Amino acid sequence: MCGIVGYIGQKNTKEILLEGLKELEYRGYDSAGIAVLSGGVFNSFKATGKLINLEEKTKEFQTKGFAVGIGHTRWATHGKPTELNAHPHVGESSYVVHNGIIENYAQLKKNLIDEGVTFLSQTDTEVIVHQFEKNLKTTKNAFDAFKKTIKELEGAYAILLVTKAEEEKIFFAKNGSPMLVGINEANEKYFASSDAPLIGHATDVNYFEDGDYGYVSADEIIIYDKNDTKKAPHFAKLATNKLSAQKDGYRFFMEKEIYEQSDVIADTLLGRVSEKEVLFEELDASLFEGINEIKLCACGTSYHAALTASYLFERYAKVKSTVEIASEFRYREPIMSKETLFVVISQSGETADTLETLKMAKNAGLKTLAICNVDNSSMVRLADATILARAGIEKGVASTKAFATQVTIFWMLSLYLAKRNNTLTQAAIEKQLELLRALPLCVKVQDSMHERIKRLSKRYLHGHGFFFIGRDIFFPLALEGALKLKEISYLHAEGYPSGEMKHGPIALADPELFTIALLPEHLLYEKSKSNVEELSARDSTICAISPLAFDKADDFIETKKQKDYMLEFFEMMVVVQLLSLEISVRLGNDVDMPRNLAKSVTVE
Q1: Does the reported pTM lie above 0.70?
Q2: Which residues are marked as active site?
């Protein structure tokens, strides 16, 4: 979820780049940098933390006359948020910025090191500039070297590269990460990873498609597609509302973040899922030695992700798993065994109650693991090991994509442990890996589905409450669906295991009680269906979410036929998020900033 800017022209390039990076702050970052090439001389500046630190470093630097420049805000995925790991990355005579993940960077890096290349950073991005300079020695020009380099990269990327070899050009490539170029009447050229930095500078923009690559100079824009066919740019008028541009045309940041889940899950998988196994370079095998139990501790949405993980760890890895609410765990004098791996989950890494439980575990001598979205946060610094989610920043207070990436990590980790513990056959693991690779497409929001939910939402604006019900792993999802609705609609909602209805809650059943029933085809369908029928018989209003039609349902949201219950889980996750969103919109609430709530709870 990093940000990219670039500029070719006569203006003060430094100011253009810094102003562009400010417009990308909403995406989240932990370091930033720029590189400017003018008169055959490079000037590069990098800083950690907020952009004011970079501004301070560059306050004496000015450009006069023609220059090319690139800039970047980084959200750490490979390597800590340090100046060395910040972009742009340098070779002998070139600089590069990059969004995305180079999946085969480890092998490329090994080959380059074997050939005598020295790396300065821990990032995957640095391989791009060194690979380019390696190719530059054997090709006839910089563009051929860049083209060859792009063909050697695997993964997702938006890349800008500048080089002294052809100092009046910016080379670009786009595959899986957004990138556009803008122009104006002065024939200046502006690059960015979203519209916002270009507003007020460019009048028309070309949105690059996956596989596009080429270069831009003062006089021309050269684009080739993924089949190496030259194509003309297709310009469209640039919008003028910056807030709207940050939202990419969505009504709310939460809506945008629901739609982004496909991309952030793909980012979370990249470099971690091979054909044969799950790879976590950040984990040392010794972390699991002597461990016979995993204890997961979290709050709110992260607690629901932890509950989901407990099903996966026990089912696939055959490891005893317990789940704790952090605010309760810290005060009940728990028994803590050194044979337990203590796992904390937090979007921000600063959640006060969860952080305190991590300190308790450390003091008791337990091995600790943090699942977190923010590198260099308190939990990441304190835990023995960390797996970073790659969700980028969430501006909506009600979490969506952080939950999606947390559950994705736990699914991967359960398979990682299953292979280590020899609790699944290789064939079974490979089948699960195939499902994981299908996940980004599974959560991509279909317009027809969203429109169906939008129309249906008007029937759920009253009543005395909601039951979200599901069995097995769909129980935590029911809890999460109920929490989302509570957070942004202010309607009362509860999540229950479907089989618990007859143990008390069914007493509330009447036409004004809305039941949101999660009915996956591939996991306990008949049992769940029977529980819903009990509610229907008491005249509860039923909204069934399922790939299979249910004749007792008053409303039916049809999901796609999937191969496995885990894909059904993720698709239904999107459905309950959208349902909560649309009910809240109809009620006229502030979806992104619901009352009484904060994004990161850093006090008790």
Answers
A1: yes
A2: 2, 599
